[in-house]
Every structure is written in structure tokens, then in C-alpha cells.
Amino acid sequence: VHDKNGAATARRQFPEFHQNEMGGAFEKWRRAVAAPFLSCTEGLAERVEMTERVFEQIALQVGLNTLKYQEIERNIKKLIKQTSQGFVVDFAKQLDIHVRENAVSLNKITLGNLLHKLDEAKQDGIMPDTTAPAAETLNMSYHVPPLAASEEAEWAAQFEQIVAARNRLIHDFELYYGHEPQAQIVQRLRDEFVAAEAFNQKIVQRLNEVTVQGLNTMIRGLEWYRANLAVISAARAFWQVYAACVREDGWAVWTLVLSKMREQHGETLAALQAEYPQQNITEIVKRVYPNWRFSQEPTPKGSVRVLVQVE
Q: Whole-model pTM?
């Protein structure tokens, strides 16, 4: 005791204090005078007179529960981001692949607010990146709802229970656990850990399902791209040739376009014709590029020539 008045107060409460400062009297004074300043855990330990072993069990379980709630928070954030994924293949940069994910910012979102973000993620899919010319990029994306409609109510109820248990543990431990016998505190914490782990496993399962559905969507898109590669490649080449041949009125002479295609992109044109060997090139183009417009105009010599507008 450094304060004279404080020392006198302690001696009046515990006369034996000055006789045995290193004995039990000092512990009595510490409890009487310093108890209000003890941490919640230390104060709880003294009130219920925990043994060291039980106190360690509680401290261990508190740590395990806290880590589990943090894991739940991380996995829900992963689930939200995984609902919308995509990638862009830039052919102009030697097949540079840029992976994109749901752009929802979750860095500062706490566990209690993630249910609202899950609800938002039902509709917030990433949009295709249109900043690069379509002729030079392959842009793919998918969106999978984070939860099935039939699961939403059950998830919401369990999620609220988990958040309530987490808040009790982190913010109101002494209030909710301090009045219980030590054995019941350990068991209650263990029960809450089991409930949290069961909910976390549901999150992981749904995360895996969303990932698989998204990847299958991407695979189907890549298979479609591979099956239509000749058509896509030819469209890119046709556009380049058309841009060089187009007149001020927006039309280009079809025979001139075909001539330059054979000259500049012979292999690409041959690959397209190989896909439809029973049809001539004009029939093929009209079939695979239905938005292109064809017309005719008379020539000065009295014949007719075909015109094209590429879209």
C-alpha cells in the first residue's frame, strides 16, 4: 500500500495485515479493495472458486469457440464471393486470363451483418466486362444463389442463434455465464461449440455446391466455345476485312470481302467451311451469322452484285 490512507483502511478491515503482509491477509485485502478493478475472467474465477484445472478448461473452450465463430465468418464471406465468378481471356495478350469475383466489399462486415449480405448476393452477379473489344476477348461469368429458397428460413434461424451465442461469449461473458456452476459453464460452452461446428459444416457444404455448380457452368461455356471456335475465329477475321472494305453507306461488296478473306485468312475460312462441307460459303455465313445483312445492287454493266453489312 503506497497511499497512507489506503493502508490505514486496509489495517482497519484486516488487523492482521501489518503482522503478516505476505500471508493470507494480503489476499483478503486484494479481494476487498481491488476486486472492482479485476478483469471479468479473474473476477468470475474468484466468485465461483474455480480450480485451476476447470479454469483452464473454460479458457480453452472460450478460445475454441471464438476461433470457430471466426471460421464461420470467413466461410460465409467465401460463400458470398463464390456466388459470382468469371474470367476474361485476352487473346491480344497471349491468352492472358484474368479471374474476376463478386465485387462485394466484405472486409469490414462483421458476423452479425453477413446474413443481409447473403440475401443481397442472391441477385448481385458480376456483369461481363465490356471494356475490351469483343473480338479480342472471351468473357465468361456465372451466378449461383448462395442459398436455395427452401433453405433460407432455416439458415436465418440458425444464423441468428450463432450470432447470439457469439455475442454472449465476446461481449457479455460474465453476465450470461458468471452465475452458473463451473461444470455447467464448461458444458454450455461445449454445446455451443458443437452447434457452431454443425452450422459451419453446412456453410462448407453449400460453398462446395456453389463452387461445383459454377465450375460446371464455366465448363459448359468452354465446351461451347470450343465447338464454335471456327465460327468465332472467322467472325473476328470477317470483321477486320469488312472494316477495310466497307463503303460510306455501311455496305461492302461481298465478293471483295471473300477475296480478301481467302488472301489474308485462308486457314480460318477453310476451318469454317470444314464445319459445313455440304454448303457454300455464302450459305454458311447466313446460317452462322444470322444478324448480318445481305442485299443486292445493280452494277454499271447491268449485272447484280451482293452486298453485306457485318454486325
A: 0.62
